[in-house]
Design goal:
The protein is α/β, with parallel strands linked by helices. The protein has two domains: 3-75 and 306-550, 3-Layer(aba) Sandwich (Aminopeptidase), CATH 3.40.630.10; 91-293, 3-Layer(bba) Sandwich (Glucose Oxidase, domain 1). The protein is 32% helix and 24% strand. The strands form three sheets. The chain has a 16-stranded mixed β-sheet that branches. A two-stranded antiparallel ribbon has the order 6-7. The radius of gyration is 24 Å and the shape is globular. The chain binds zinc ion. Zinc ion is lined by residues 320, 341-342, 375, 403-404.
């Protein structure tokens, strides 16, 4: 729908009979601190063991969700079960047998797992290795015809090892004319880099970790990549994937490059130049992993409320239920409770479902509540959902994702991650205005958060998505407080054992945000029209291609 029709619609709703409004307001109250805190505290408790797929914590989490869905009157899509089983293969590289080393310039250097590097493979094989594989520095490792960019041009990567910078040239240069400037594109994501290196026929790919362009410190890489890794599995056991995928610290990368008589800073500058070509370094890499392989499946949990008169059209609320589980003890704590990430989002999902339940009149469209698995393993549950949707994607009017709702307190703003993308932002701005708040654009587009949570898999299929982040302009707190709190979280608690629930949290801001998201979904659910991506958005063409399915 156009900007004006969205506006007209929301004005209509606003001006609508005060009786109906009263019921909406009453329903909104179902989203409250008591409900939200109960769910967060439960899901983030030690009892749930950090909610790793395949663990006893999974069983508890999924059972909890099913009980709640049942109590909320949600219905299974197939009429029988809330679960959509996602087949996963769990590959654990045995730590004592994970090796990566380099030779060149008369030197030999072996890296230490965890300290210097992490390594693994998604090939479903008991072992995987490379031996004396030529290392090729490929800059950002990007092939992007629409930006006129090909780091692999003229290179034969077969059997070789790609050494790759994190993020993309636009970020690296800050030049707004290069890619999307500081805003990260999908080419900046690590997932893309391994996929592209595999397409190029490389045997292995090694990403150089740098905190600023990665947007997270080395500990996040270390904690996420050691221990069991879950992957989706193809019929041939992921034979097309790289033999080895690794990350190394910036310090070690500098040493490897020094062995080749090269300097990282100079190479980085070269990699930003249009027409940059990757180059062999005269260094070889050898590495190996031995794998423990376990097949498992882990469920997405989905339930819906049927719409009043357009039941085959849907609004989806989504949040990932999984987190990292248990790991190496840190200060005696082995459990990654994942309170902010993402007990908060799941609690939000349940609170919003409770609000819909309270409505006297359900919206025209059906509302699906979807708690996905294996987000932390690379958005696998949502990828599976996008491939095997429970309800048609072309008739899914919008997906609203909740992931990592920081307890900062009430804010005057709310941020849209990946802003300027779709008409859903108009509805959000409208609802925010009624709370006396403003919508702010993505403050860190260079971090590419839009590509790092589950809605992205649905966006790739064309479904308009909304993903917000708490505002930092806090009421009654000195300027800068909210931003400092966010930065403290990223530094001290994100993907660490210390992401715990604390009853002292100020969740008042989360409640306000959830009420906004409730309202946005409600409006999409009530509207006869279909929100779309803005013209020029990368997902618009995909959506328009299924236009026919949405003809009234
Ligand atoms: Zn998350």
């Amino acid at each position: 729908m156009s900007k004006t029709s969205v506006l007209a619609l929301s004005l209509l709703l606003l001006a609508g009979c005060s009786g109906a409004n009263h019921y909406v307001q009453r329903a909104t109250l179902a989203i409250n601190e008591a409900v939200y805190r109960t769910h967060v505290a439960k899901l983030a408790s030690d009892e749930f063991e950090g909610r790793a797929p395949g663990s006893p914590g999974e069983r508890k989490t999924v059972e909890y969700l099913e009980q709640q869905f049942l109590a909320l009157g949600l219905q299974p899509v197939d009429g029988a079960s809330f679960r959509q089983q996602v087949p996963l293969v769990e590959i654990t590289a045995v730590p004592a047998q994970a090796r990566l080393g380099f030779a060149g310039g008369g030197r030999q250097m072996d890296l230490a797992l965890g300290e210097d590097m992490v390594i693994g493979t998604r090939r479903v094989q008991p072992s995987s290795a490379i031996s004396d594989s030529e290392v090729v520095f490929v800059g950002y490792g990007v092939v992007a015809p629409e930006y006129g960019w090909n780091d692999y041009e003229g290179l034969d990567m077969r059997g070789k090892t790609a050494l790759i910078l994190v993020n993309d040239p636009g970020y690296g240069s800050g030049d707004p004319g290069l890619f999307r400037g500081r805003a990260m594109t999908y080419y900046g994501r690590w997932t893309y880099k391994y996929e592209e290196a595999a397409r190029q026929g490389a045997a292995a790919a090694i990403i150089i970790h740098q905190t600023a362009p990665a947007a997270y410190p080395w500990e996040v890489v270390r904690n996420s990549w050691t221990g069991p890794q879950f992957w989706a599995e193809t019929a041939d056991g992921n034979a097309d994937a790289l033999a080895l995928e690794a990350w190394i610290t910036e310090a070690r990368a500098r040493e490897v490059l020094a062995m080749a008589g090269q300097d990282l800073d100079a190479l980085q500058r070269a990699a930003l130049q249009r027409g940059f070509r990757g180059k062999p370094l005269g260094v070889t890499a050898s590495g190996s992993v031995r794998n423990l392989i376990r097949r498992a499946s882990s469920p997405n949990v989905a339930g819906y409320l049927p719409g009043r008169d357009r039941r085959d059209e849907y609004v989806i609320y989504m949040a990932h239920w999984d987190h990292l589980g248990k790991g190496l003890a840190l200060a005696g704590d082995t459990i990654y409770n994942g309170a902010v990430d993402n007990a908060t989002g799941v609690a939000g999902l349940l609170a919003i479902a409770a609000a819909y339940r309270e409505l006297l009149l359900l919206p025209s469209r059906s509302v699906l509540f979807l708690a996905v698995t294996a987000e932390e393993s690379g958005l696998i549950g949502s990828e599976y959902y996008a491939r095997y949707p429970l309800v048609p994607l072309e008739k899914t009017a919008a997906v609203i994702n909740m992931d990592g709702m920081q307890p900062l307190g009430r804010a005057l703003d709310i941020e849209v991650i990946g802003s300027g993308a779709s008409e859903l932002e108009i509805l959000l701005a409208d609802a925010a205005k009624r709370q006396g708040r403003v919508v702010k654009p993505d403050s860190r587009p260079e971090h590419g958060y839009f590509y790092r949570s589950d809605h992205f898999n649905l966006a790739k299929e064309g479904v308009p998505s909304l993903y917000t982040k708490v505002g930092v302009d806090l009421r009654d707190r000195p300027p800068g407080t909210g931003q400092a709190m966010l930065e403290e979280y990223t530094r001290e608690r994100y993907h660490k054992q210390s992401d715990d629930y604390d009853p002292a949290w100020d969740v008042s801001g989360n409640i306000e945000d959830l009420r906004l998201l409730f309202e946005v979904g409600l409006q999409v659910g009530a509207a006869p029209s279909w929100p779309n991506w803005y013209e020029g958005n990368e997902f618009r063409a995909k959506r328009d291609a299924s236009q026919q399915a949405r003809k009234p």
